[in-house]
Design goal:
Bound molecules: flavin mononucleotide
Largest sheet: 4 strands, antiparallel
CATH class of the largest domain: Alpha Beta
Number of domains: 2
CATH architecture of the largest domain: 3-Layer(aba) Sandwich
Strand content: 5-15%
Number of strands: 4
Strand order of the largest sheet: 1-2-4-3
Structural class: alpha+beta
Number of helices: 6
Order of helices and strands: HHEHEHEHEH
Shape: elongated
CATH topology of the largest domain: NADH Oxidase
């Protein structure tokens, strides 16, 4: 599968089979994270790979909603990052997490991003503190997200390219309402000019 097909096909997977990942797959996933670009090449991240079922179950309770799927995953990669190492700590960690997801898709595995920062458990405990305690993560490491990974229980349909929000893309600069009105006037003038020209040609022939 080429890269373009891969990103069209990738979708979040929230239901996994019981099949474990091979050691090679786990190493490849972590290797991809470590290969991600980072601001000034500071690489402020750390990754905690969790396969232990009991810990996965506990991670699934790390916030009130949206984390339950971790319990059924074969692997969770907890992505942490140190703001004292780089001021691009959030971006660096987010890019590394994205690399993990794309690598997972390339290995024909499913994955889902579980957001952690500024979330709480059902008991009102800060999600980061809960995960830090569970996995012995030092205080200076901010927990950005958990990438849950496993074999897909169901295949997801590829993205529909005709539903892309092209209106959010701007050429050269973002158009003001006045620009849009002018573009409409120009289009109308062009249309009437074309109609006149067409008439001229018809009269000559
Ligand atoms: C920053 C971020 C946070 C997300 N948090 C969660 C989450 O906590 N739980 C979850 O099930 N999905 C989460 N997702 C997955 C999104 O819901 C999903 O990517 C989005 O709905 C688009 O669907 P797709 O990944 O299938 O294309 C998150 C994705 C991102 C990028």
């Amino acid at each position: 599968m080429n890269f373009q097909d891969l990103i069209i096909k990738r979708h979040s997977t929230r239901r996994f089979t019981d099949e474990k990942l091979s050691q090679d797959e786990v190493v490849t996933l972590i290797q991809s994270a470590l290969l991600a670009p980072s601001g000034r090449h500071r690489r402020p991240w750390q990754f905690v790979a969790v396969e232990d079922k009991e810990k996965l179950q506990k991670l699934s309770l790390s916030k009130t909603s949206g984390a339950q799927l971790i319990a059924g995953a074969a692997l969770a990669i907890v992505v942490t990052t140190d703001p004292l190492i780089s001021d691009t700590w959030v971006e660096d960690a987010a890019i590394a997490a994205t690399y993990i997801q794309l690598q997972a898709e390339d290995l024909k595995l499913g994955s889902c991003w579980v957001h952690v920062r500024e979330r709480q458990t059902a008991d009102g405990i800060n999600s980061e503190d809960y995960i830090r305690k569970l996995l012995n993560i030092p205080l200076q490491q901010q927990v950005i997200c958990i990438i849950a990974i496993g074999h897909k229980a169901v295949e997801t349909a590829p993205a529909k390219l005709d539903e892309l929000e092209w209106e959010k893309v701007h050429i050269d600069h973002v158009k003001t309402p006045e620009d849009a009105a002018q573009a409409l006037i120009d289009a109308c003038q062009l249309e009437s000019m074309t109609a006149e020209r067409k008439k001229e040609v018809e009269q000559k022939s």
